[in-house]
Specification:
2 copies of one chain form a homodimer. By secondary structure, chain A is mainly alpha-helical. Chain A has one domain: Tetracycline Repressor, domain 2. Chain A has 9 helices and no strands. In chain A, helix 1 packs antiparallel against helix 2, helix 4 runs antiparallel to helix 5 and helix 8 packs antiparallel against helix 9. Chain A is elongated, with a radius of gyration of 20 Å. The N terminus of chain A is likely disordered. Chains A and B meet through helix 1, helix 6, helix 7, helix 8 and helix 9 of A and helix 1, helix 6, helix 7, helix 8 and helix 9 of B.
């Protein structure tokens, strides 16, 4: 699907310049949006010529696609690491709380909230980027959760008939409130570490009232 | 807060033209975004001169503020109508399901999803509009719900200590999945009427597993 991610052209180009362009582009896109971003500014900030920018990335669009997909993938990988580590534990409340807190901590950063706003604002122009964010973000998390919940139900640590539905309920109990608030109220509304811990604990508590072992 | 909503200047101007400008502006802003919207096109589509547009709305910004606040207010009013109508009923499951379905049906329209994407994409430029959408949208709904839940708990139809927390859980169990999917996957992912009914029923079921009368 994301064939456009391969549009960066990098034979005989400097990896250091490549990274400098990516860092500058991330800053400018997140701050100014897609339409507002000037390739001149990306070149100036990365201390290379505009020709060099175009040698590394064929177009503003190709550069934007690269920024969004790499940021999205890094966040998904960071959540996954924690997914299976504790799944063998018998203490399902602690496991779910740790997982929820990891997911909250990884996702609720100013950079990822800015990325999410930018991608949502550009759905009409770049539907495939928004789809990638959805699939590598909530959809991926929910399918991992569903598989874990099914195992926990077999071990009678959870009570459920429909693992995918339970995973959706868990995911949105944990993520919806802080993410949707940050979407509209901006990065200053991102909860602090202790607030995220408390939110994770409350979300898991209500989830287990519904789905805990009886 | 929304003092900018009063920037429309309409003495001795035609209400019919005023409405034509608003209708055209809604279409163009939702389709092209804030930066992409041309006041020339708004004028052409509303069949008035550009001077007439500026006689009614001092600036592109004033016109945008008017579109966002009026669409947001109309949606909030439509949900409120249903809020108290059934709150006296003893059948709490039916009441919650009807309320959830009304809220889903009002909010999950292509127009309101486009508005929400546009406002999220413009948080940096128009933080006060996004704040208004949050306050008249989810925040308003949750505070109405909290008051209702407190009454239902006093009548022992719900079991809860913290009405605001229960209202947040209810709101996001109902709204998060379809709204967040529509944000990223576009208007084609808005569920059909029967799908929304089923989603309302499942959301209420899990809410009552956690918060129902014991």
């Amino acid at each position: 699907m994301m064939a456009t991610t391969t549009t960066s052209i990098a034979p005989r180009t400097s990896p250091r310049k490549h990274q400098a362009i990516l860092d500058a582009a991330e800053l400018v896109f997140l701050r100014d949006g897609y339409l507002g971003t000037s390739m001149d500014e990306v070149a100036t900030r990365s201390r290379v010529s505009k020709q060099t920018v175009y040698k590394h990335f064929a177009s503003k669009e190709a550069l934007f696609v690269e920024i969004v997909t790499s940021m999205t993938s890094r966040a998904a990988d960071a959540v996954d690491v924690n997914m299976w580590a504790e799944a063998a534990a018998d203490d399902v409340r602690t496991y779910l709380r740790d997982y929820a807190l990891t997911q909250l901590t990884v996702v609720l950063t100013p950079r990822l909230m800015q990325l999410r706003r930018l991608v949502i604002g550009e759905v009409a122009r770049f539907p495939e980027l928004a789809r990638a964010l959805y699939e590598r973000g909530p959809k991926h998390a929910m399918s991992q959760l569903a598989a874990t919940f099914e195992q926990l139900a077999e071990r009678r640590l959870l009570t459920l008939d429909d693992p995918a539905l339970a995973a959706s309920h868990f995911n949105w109990l944990v993520m919806a409130e802080p993410v949707n608030r940050a979407m509209l109220l901006g990065d200053d509304s991102i909860p602090s570490g202790p607030e995220l811990s408390r939110h994770a604990e409350q979300s898991v508590a209500v989830f287990l009232m519904a789905y805990g072992a009886h």
